[in-house]
């Protein structure tokens, strides 16, 4: 089912489901009860579930990069150890680095593909799996969301910050670190900018929660902030965030992509909007090339 065929009310329900405010059963029950054009919206709702086979744009065997899973210490995190998906470009390095933060359900195939996209673009990329302390991404988003919500959230953020330090100090790293992430990972990108200060050179959060206004002066990275137009919950945070960025003199630029939904970069669901996703990604790569050179 194409994006244009899905009613905004179904997207709104899906947003509630994705962010854990209702479970899968409730999402489908409420969609079935929603009548649009004389027909139940259940088919629209079912069409929104991800199809991760469609997310792969860079093959695992692509000769332009090499990908592998790595383990590394994470003191103060949920288990003391973390696991991530490390992608390096072909060649000997060193490379500028970018950490990729997943959504609220662990390291799924879409986020791994994003890491590979960065690898073929010339960056050493790490996509940490916040679910590593509880066995890793379980293979489906419902279980992943439940597992992630059950973690100690403060320790989960520690695991992500430790992952950034691991990547920045990697033998193949040039020492220049950037960060990007989607949904929960977009918020984590903002939080990392606060936590690392000058140790983060560039951040590209996608539709992520803003940091507390009083913490914004700690940000020293150049920020490129990406929003979907139809994303009221996240977008409501922007005016205060923008004001704090300006007051603190933080280098920043923000884009709102018209006609898009929260999650528009994720090419495994009908929320994907190809034109906006491609433009936003071109901007992200240009931002990293400028500030991580």
Written overview of the protein:
With 293 residues, the chain is an alpha/beta fold. The protein contains ten helices and ten strands. The strands form two sheets. The chain has an eight-stranded mixed beta sheet with strand order 3-4-6-5-7-8-9-10, sandwiched between helices. Helix 6 packs across helix 7. It starts with 7 loop residues before the first helix and ends with a helix.
Key descriptive features of the protein:
Rossmann fold, 8-stranded mixed sheet, 10 helices
Give the secondary structure arrangement, pairings included.
Blueprint: H1 8-18, H2 24-33, E1 35-36, E2 39-40, H3 42-47, E3 65-73, E4 81-89, E5 95-101, H4 109-120, E6 124-128, H5 141-149, H6 153-168, E7 173-182, H7 184-196, E8 202-206, E9 222-230, H8 232-235, H9 238-248, E10 252-261, H10 274-292
Parallel strand pairs: 5-6, 5-7, 7-8, 8-9, 9-10
Antiparallel strand pairs: 1-2, 3-4, 4-6
Helix pairs in contact: 1-2, 6-7
* Poorly predicted residue ranges: none
CATH architecture of the largest domain: 3-Layer(aba) Sandwich
Q: Indicate the mean pLDDT.
A: 92
Decide which structural class fits the backbone: alpha/beta
Total domains, how many? Answer: 2
Radius of gyration: 18 Å
CATH homologous superfamily heading of the largest domain: Alpha/Beta hydrolase fold, catalytic domain
Number of helices: 10
At a glance:
The chain has helices at 8-18, 24-33, 42-47, 109-120, 141-149, 153-168, 184-196, 232-235, 238-248, 274-292, and strands at 35-36, 39-40, 65-73, 81-89, 95-101, 124-128, 173-182, 202-206, 222-230, 252-261. With 293 residues, it is of the alpha/beta class. α1 (8-18) runs antiparallel to α2.
